[in-house]
Every structure is written in structure tokens, then in C-alpha cells.
């Protein structure tokens, strides 16, 4: 499972990372921006690493109400929605709460927060916030540049692990990815001992044979 968690936590290509304004300078000509990825990017990462059948999500609406806000723009009412996401990846479940000015925004925020607990995009929280030039009339700024992530050298896998990977690919092609994921989860990945690895391989073979 260590390899799965590592792949989930890998940095995203710079082109998939977006930036949002967190604060403006007093003259409104500089903006403090922070990086983030949208919910679709998170979904793509989950599908790529564990397959569509290897994860599922469930949601609970906690709050959908308006609140009174007072600031330099005066007094106004704003909608605040709170949603809890329970995200399960290969049998492991984590949850978190997201919020937004609409249910759609709250659902997306909750998914991203829950995915962070699996390492997805967690590195973004460690990146420094940056001040950039800001055009107050157009509400635009030039996003900072992120360094290209260098690919990690792939370690040579044991022969047994490669054979199991091949079986998993064949099972996914036959639409048995979800059943295979349950078996892999039972053994905690490739198995903690050679005997468990042999049993895992045997169960996957039997599943493929039907």
C-alpha cells in the first residue's frame, strides 16, 4: 500500500495547479495568492492511482443557511453551506468538512479536504503564499510559476509484485477491479510476508479464472 499512498501524494504538474486571491494590499495593486487544485483534478488522481472502482465517496449536508456579514462594504447577507465528505480508498475511510457559498462549492471543498488526508495535494499547503501584481479593474493577476516536478527513479520491483500488478491490470480490464481491490486491501498491499504474497497471488488468480 505504501506505493499507492506515494502515488496519491505526488505533486501535480504545474499546469494543473491554480491560484486564488487570499488578500489584497491597501492600494489593491498587489495580491497575496495561494495554490490549489479543483475537485476534478482530485477525482482524476484517484481514478488514475486506484481506478474508479477502488474508491467511493459519500456526503452529508450539515448546514445550508444565510448569515449576516459586516465589513468595509457595509452590511449584507451571505449564504454559508457546510458538507461532510466520507472518502474511502481501498477500504480505508477518512472524512472532513468543507464549506462554500453554495452546496456545489461545499461539496467540492469537502472532497478536496478529505482527499488531503490521503496525501492528495497535501504538499500545496507547504508552499509559500506569494505576492503578485494585481489589476483591480479587471480582477486579474499573473499566476506564480511552480517548478516542474522531477520524476522519481522507479525502484525495481520484486518479481512477485510485478506478477501481481499484471494480474490486477487484467482484472481491471475484465471489470473486476473492485473485487481485486478488496483482496489487495485484505493483505495490506502485496502482503507482509512471502506466504501472504503467495496467498494474495492465488486469490487474484482464482478471481480471474472465475
TrEMBL record:
Domain of life: Bacteria
Assigned keywords, A-Z: DNA damage, DNA repair
One GO BP annotation of this record: double-strand break repair
One Pfam family from the record: Rad52_Rad22
Positions of region (Disordered): 138-160
InterPro entries hit by this protein: Rad52_fam, Rad52_Rad59_Rad22_sf
Family: Belongs to the RAD52 family.
Protein name as catalogued: Rad52/22 family double-strand break repair protein
Source organism of this protein record: Thermus thermophilus JL-18
Amino acid at each position: 500500500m505504501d506505493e499507492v499512498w506515494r502515488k496519491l501524494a505526488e505533486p501535480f504538474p504545474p499546469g494543473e495547479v491554480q491560484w486564488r486571491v487570499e488578500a489584497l494590499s491597501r492600494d489593491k495593486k498587489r495580491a497575496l495568492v495561494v495554490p490549489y487544485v479543483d475537485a476534478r483534478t482530485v477525482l482524476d488522481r484517484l481514478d488514475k492511482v486506484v481506478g474508479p472502482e477502488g474508491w467511493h465517496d459519500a456526503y452529508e449536508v450539515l448546514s445550508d443557511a444565510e448569515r449576516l456579514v459586516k465589513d468595509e462594504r457595509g452590511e449584507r447577507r451571505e449564504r454559508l453551506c457546510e458538507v461532510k465528505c466520507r472518502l474511502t480508498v481501498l477500504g480505508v475511510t477518512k472524512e472532513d468538512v468543507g464549506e462554500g457559498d453554495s452546496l456545489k462549492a461545499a461539496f467540492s471543498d469537502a472532497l478536496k479536504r478529505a482527499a488531503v488526508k490521503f496525501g492528495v495535494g497535501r504538499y500545496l499547503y507547504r508552499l509559500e503564499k506569494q505576492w503578485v501584481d494585481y489589476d483591480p479593474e479587471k480582477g486579474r493577476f499573473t499566476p506564480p510559476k511552480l517548478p516542474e516536478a522531477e520524476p522519481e527513479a522507479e525502484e525495481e520491483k520484486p518479481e512477485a509484485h510485478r506478477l501481481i500488478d499484471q494480474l490486477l491490470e487484467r482484472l481491471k480490464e475484465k471489470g473486476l477491479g473492485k473485487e481485486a481491490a478488496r483482496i489487495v486491501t485484505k493483505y495490506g498491499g502485496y502482503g507482509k510476508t512471502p506466504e501472504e504474497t503467495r496467498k494474495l497471488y492465488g486469490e487474484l488468480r482464482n478471481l480471474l479464472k472465475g
